[in-house]
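Give me C-alpha cells for this 358-residue protein.
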Amino acid sequence: MAPTGKPTLAVVGATGAVGAVMLRILSQRADIWGEIRLIASPRSAGRKLAVRGEEVEVVALTEDAFAGVDIAMFDVPDAVAAEWAPIAAAHGAVVVDNSGAFRMDPDVPLVVPEVNAHAARNRPRGIIANPNCTTLTMIVALGALHAEFGLRELVVSSYQAVSGAGRAGVETLRAQLSLVAGTELGTSPGDVRRAVGDSTGPFPEPVVLNVVPWAGSLAEDGWSSEEMKVRDESRKILGLPQLPVAVTCVRVPVVTTHSLTVHARFQGEVSVDGAREILATAPGVVLCDDPAAGEFPTPADVVGTDPTWVGRVRRALDDPTALELFVCGDNLRKGAALNTAQIAELVAQEWTAAEEHR
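Here you go.
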C-alpha cells in the first residue's frame, strides 16, 4: 500500500505530447493518488516535470520502475507497450494502455467510462486498452444514442487534426504555414506542393491549405489502418460485433481537435427532439446546435476542453430511422489522456474498496 493509503500511479511516456496533457489533467482532477511516478525512455531520465504543483523526477523505463506501482498509464508507441505493459502487469500493476497494441485482444477490455465502464472489471491480462482518438471523438455521443435507439449501421467521415500524427504532424503543419505565407496559391494544380517541396513530414501530401483523404497505413482492400480502427473499436465498445461501419478518414490543417460527420441508422424511427434531449443530458457530451444562430461545434471552439461536442443534429432526408450529426473532440484530451485517466480512476475506486475490506 502507498504510504498515504492511496494507490501508486505510474505515468509511462510522461515526457511525450499526450504525457504532458496527462500531467495537466492529473493536476486538475480529484487528488485520489498517492505517489505519482513518472517513467520515460532512458534519455529522458533525470528530467523534472510538474505534477500537482510539485517537481517530480523522471525515471528510466526498467522493470524496477514498476516496483510498488498499483496502476500504470501507458502512452508510448505500440511496440514499447507490447513489450512493457505485460511486464508492468506481471509486477502487479493494472495497466491502462493508450497504444494500439492491445485494443483488439479478446482478453483486454476496450473501455470508454461513459459507455462501458463495467468492461474494465474483466481484465484477464491485467491490461485495459484505451481507444483510438478518432473513435473517442464520436463514441460517447453514439453510445448514449445507441442505449436509447439501438444502433444498426454507421457511416462516418473524419476530419483529423495533425496532432493525431504526433509532434511531427504539428511541426510539419507549422513549417508548411511558413513556406506558403505570402505566396499566391490555389490557382493551378500543384502550386501548394511546389511551395512545400519535400516538407510533407508524416503526411503523403501537403496538409496546409489542403485536405488529405488518408490517415494511417495501408490496410486490406484500399482501407487505411485508421479507418479499420474506427470500425473495429466501435464494434467492440458498443458490443455490436457485426455492426456495418463505413469510414473515410481525412487529415485537415487543424493543430488539435478531431471532427466527424456521422450518419447513424437505428432499429426504429428516431425523433430529433428525443435525440437532442439524450445528447443534452448525456455525461461527457455538450450539445451545441442552433444553426440559425450560427451555433455548432468547430475545432477552434472545442480545443482544450474535455467533452464531446455535438451539433447539426437532424434526421436523414430519406430515412426516418437515421440521424445526421457533426461531432468535435480534443484528440489529446478526451481522445487520449482524459479517457486514460478516467479508466485509471475506475480501477483506483476498485483498489480503494478492496483496501477498505482488508
